[in-house]
Amino acid sequence: MEEYHVFPKYDVKLRLPKEVYFPSDDSFLMLDNIELPSNSKIVMEIGGGSGIISIYLAKKHPEVNFIVTDISYQATETILLNHRLNNLCNPFDIICTNKLQSFHKVSPDVIIWNPPYLPSDATSDTLPAFEKNMFIGGRKGSEEAYDLIAKISESNISTVFYTIFSSLGWNKILVSQLENESCKAEIVKETKLFFEELYLVRIIIGDKNVK
Known about the structure:
CATH architecture: 3-Layer(aba) Sandwich
CATH superfamily: Vaccinia Virus protein VP39
Shape: globular
Distance between the termini: 43 Å
Largest sheet: 7 strands, mixed
Order of helices and strands: EEHEHEHEEEHEHEEE
Strand content: 25-35%
Number of domains: 1
Helix content: 10-25%
Number of helices: 5
Structural class: alpha/beta
C-alpha cells in the first residue's frame, strides 16, 4: 500500500510503497549538493527509486530533459506516479532497465546514481531481492559504483557523474583512484552519521566542464 509523504524543503510530494527506497540521508546529501552545469540539456538518473532527486532537479531546471531509470518495475511505476503528482512540465522519460544497458547513443550532460553501497555479509543472501538491490553494493560495498564508473569511462561520452560512497565500504583517501587521463574526481560533500560517513563524489569524465 502506498503512503503519502511531503518534503517541504524540496517542494516535493511522494507516494511510496514499502518496496521502493524511502528518501534518507544519502538522498538528502545529493538533493542539497548536486549542481547541474549551466548548459545542461539531458540529465540521467540511474536507480531513481522514488524519483525525488530528478523531480526536485526538474522543478529547479524546467528547461532540462530527464531520463530516470530503475531495475525495479514497481519503482518505475512509482516514479511515474510521483512525476504526475508534482505536475512537472519537463520532458521526463522513465525506463525500467539495469543501469546503462538500454542506452547506446545517449550522451547525458549529467549522470546521477545513489547506488547500493553496503558491504555484503552472512545475512545478505537472506534479504528479499528488492532490499538486496537497494542496499548491497558487493563484497566490499563499492564494487557496483566502480563497475559503473568504468562502463561510463569506456563509453567515450563526456559527462559529470555524481555518486555516493560509504565509509563502511570505502575510504575517502581512495578518491584519487577514481582518476585517470579522462576522469577527474572530487568529494563534493561528506556527512557523518551515527555508524558511517557518506561521501558525495563528483567525477568529470571526458572534456565535460562544470560551469
